[in-house]
């Protein structure tokens, strides 16, 4: 198992738009492509409260590449994402980490 941790750093005031996009659009595409989420978090205390952190679970990097690429190139997804940013951009920067569990991890 591989866990992908993604952190979306939003433009000021744009976190609600990102949360809405996940709720109304993105999660449906994740389901369509079999992308399994572990969870989503916003920052309660930290350097910035304009971020969304989430984790995805993959069997392998090959599975991730196949499913993520299919999702990212979906014409309907591209159109809907663009529509949510027609007024102004939502995400300024994305951090991406691929994690593997240790032998003593509760999640393996």
From TrEMBL:
UniProt protein name: NIPSNAP protein
NIPSNAP domain mapped to chain residues: 3-105
Native source organism of the sequence: Paraburkholderia silvatlantica
Taxonomy of the source species: Bacteria, Pseudomonadati, Pseudomonadota, Betaproteobacteria, Burkholderiales
SUPFAM superfamilies reported for this sequence: Dimeric alpha+beta barrel (SSF54909)
Signal sequence extent: none
InterPro entries documented for this protein: Dimeric_a/b-barrel (IPR011008), NIPSNAP (IPR012577)
